[in-house]
Amino acid sequence: MKTKIIEKATELFLKLGFKSITMDDIANEMAISKKTIYKFFCNKEVLIEETVEKVHNDIHHTMSEIFQQNHNAIEENFEIRRTFKELFKSSETSPVYQLKKHYPEIYDKVYSRQVDECKIWFRTNIEKGIAQGLYRSEVDIELYSKFYYLLIFQINDSTILEKEASALELKALEYHTRALSTSNGVEELEKQLSNPNI
Asked: For residue 57, what is the domain's CATH number?
């Protein structure tokens, strides 16, 4: 039952917002009593922490699967973008923005972990792109990966609407990739940008 509550709460929080969804809403959606929810979660904040942990683990698992596929570095970044877009497609407002605004303590716990993981992912992607001749060999890997994650986190932290955040993330990805790319990389970037599903 606990797992089912977390799954339903995650779905509702991502779709309608952490602030607006109540324990009553979750109970009604699941056709259970609110008392049942409180058996497993002493308050809404604890439930939010559990749902955020679930989303974090889902993202980590999905990213690991993408990295194991045979994508080139640029294609890999666009595949990650498509995955995130699908994951948050039902969200009206940016989940990261909501979490930071309404539950800053939970946000702070997650943020440092996410930053550390993103640093590793972005650094690994740049190293891969250099080895494939898609990114310039002379780039400062640490600096470029830092620029990119700061840009992405700033977009999500400060943009209310998920649709707008997604559009800005695409621009940030294009900007980041152009800054890194060799002529072969620019060719691959244009190919990815021409895909209607980005």
From this structure: 1.10.357.10
